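pinned: reference chain
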Amino acid sequence: MAKPKSSYRCSSCQHTVAKWVGKCPDCGTWGSVDEVPILAAVGTARGIGAPRAAMLPSTPATPITQVDGKTNIALPTGVGELDRVLGGGIVPGSVVLLAGEPGVGKSTLLLEVVHQWARRAAGERALYVTGEESAGQVRLRADRTGAVHERVYLASESDLATVLGHVEQVGPTLVIVDSVQTMSATDVDGVIGGVTQVRAVTTALTSLAKASGIAVLLVGHVTKEGAVAGPRTLEHLVDVVLNFEGDRHSTLRMLRGIKNRFGASDEVGCFELHEDGIEGISDPSGLFLHNRANAVPGTAVAVTMDGKRPMLGEIQALTTPSQMPTPRRAVSGLDYNRVAMMLAVLESRAKKYFSKHEVYVSTVAGMRMTEPSADLAIAVALASTLETTAVQAGTIVIGEVGLTGEVRRVSNIGRRLAEAQRLGFTQAVVPLDHGPIPAGIKAIPVADLGEALRGAMPGF
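pinned: its structure tokens
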């Protein structure tokens, strides 16, 4: 009998090579090339060969009209911001991957999840498996955050077979594995945390979830570039991929959906991490605004869309005269290239010169604004500080600025203005084709940068 042919494929980029190599020649990943068999083609047409015998399936195919769609109803976790990102809650039998940098608060968040899950209904059990800490360490954190419940079970294990035994013994409806990179399968070659081990562990836990209906949440590490560590197939195996991010110098944490088979993948959840635990923030816009009695030159308020959530943020600018041939430019929380572009447009189209000034532009409370809708607010804040003229109180600025100085329309202006009106803003500088305007807020349509500066600062 002829030996079956094989090829070698990279688990990260799916590149195929004829023989095994230690480093993928396409993406450069080490240890990701595995042997895969080449299946013989099945032909039924003339000249290809006789067809193979058909194998009767154990379960016949079902018309889609007879499939029960109620089995995939999401169950709320009790953590509102997490449910928002998941699309209502966790679907039984689903696998969720939560990735984030060390120390960002992943374990604290999931400990709150199992606590709320155990409180959700009588008889519900949650199993928290930790491969990085001891059960005593997790208990200390639970005491500190108030997440102790008798139906929350802890297991400090890193062996996959033992973890499956704990699942069978406890009978939970929710399993947390912290983290998937610390788990090992004894029947699979490879180092712990390697490509082969991570893929085997994830595959086994995914099969467990689909066969038993147990919801599984996996904690994943990230690389220094911020991507999920491990093979790319890890993200394909799970149903939901979430990214938990935040600045070490701030208590604000953002939970972003990257992939979601049960709902939208562009939702964002906001949390605040403190020494007593973690709590969701249903209204994060107030964190990014500095409330003051009088208007101050050099500030402008913009509304950005983070996923489907509108959030208000304040942009502050400062200019000081400089004798240096190349004055300094410092930017925090914004795209440096877009700030540089706004400086060029202001000089060329509005005759506001910054060549002999140092320029500092920043957002409040560490908020990041990378959306083009903040262009107009950046330009207004820069012109305001240069001319020492404050933006009119209660005014927000929305719009993208082109290189010719025109103000372009941005998406979801209605939702942005509704959020601004809710927080007490009374007027908005918007592009000409702004669309419907919510009641209670006055729109100031502008066509170019000059009109925008005059609309935001009367008498400018």
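why pinned: The domain at 74-282 is CATH 3.40.50.300 (Rossmann fold). The two ends are 88 Å apart (CA to CA).
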